[in-house]
Amino acid sequence: MNGINENINQQYDVISPGNVLKSFKPLISEVCELILAYRQMVPVIPELCLPTATKEIAFTPILFQAANNIRIKNANSFWPVSEVTVLRKSLKAKGRIDLGLFSKRHISLIECKVTRVKVKSKDIASVRSAMENAEKQLLDVNLKNLFFKTTDEQLRNYRKHNKLVSIVTANITTDVNNNKADEQFFSKLQQVRNEYPSYMIAWVKYEPHRINQKNDGSLLPNERTLRSIGQIMVIREVFGNKWG
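Request: output the structure for the sequence above.
Response:
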């Protein structure tokens, strides 16, 4: 899946160089499937009510729903928990991580960030900034605080198998009059892949739809000129925070 022409007829893909984060591939694929399923439910769901029409607050529920779907399909899989309470090392106060995946021998903590990127722009600085913020939050978690009544054997397993994962989703937007948006989307995808060649990258492309913007409350739906055309996700395992 290296060339733009190879992607043009697909709706989504999850690219895992060297099988990085292989265990997350079913989860991210399910996220892409759900995003497409929601888009196909317009006009039952108004465009401005789609999860991809708003910002970060709507992505975590999609991720939770995808994780729960995976659990239902595979009884031996993980249990998802949203808004996991954690203790921050820097402030010595409680905070939250977007999603935790829990099984008998594994814990994965996931921090999500969402940014909007114009398909015509040459810059993806907002993606870099979001990635840095997500990783900073994960590294600031006091992981020892998660364990209680933990045996030495369990703790050894946790140290071996646990993951801290950041997910940054770029909501790719375009003007309603842009007739080259499809080609530009895949150019943007290639730009992101070039920036993060060793990370898991997922993308999902759908029919353009209207989105919510700041100070647009007085605009009717048909007066909105900005459209979302797809999502590009950067998924990375974060190292440097010791488990227990």
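The beta strands are 12-15, 79-87, 94-102, 107-118, 163-175, 200-210, 226-237.
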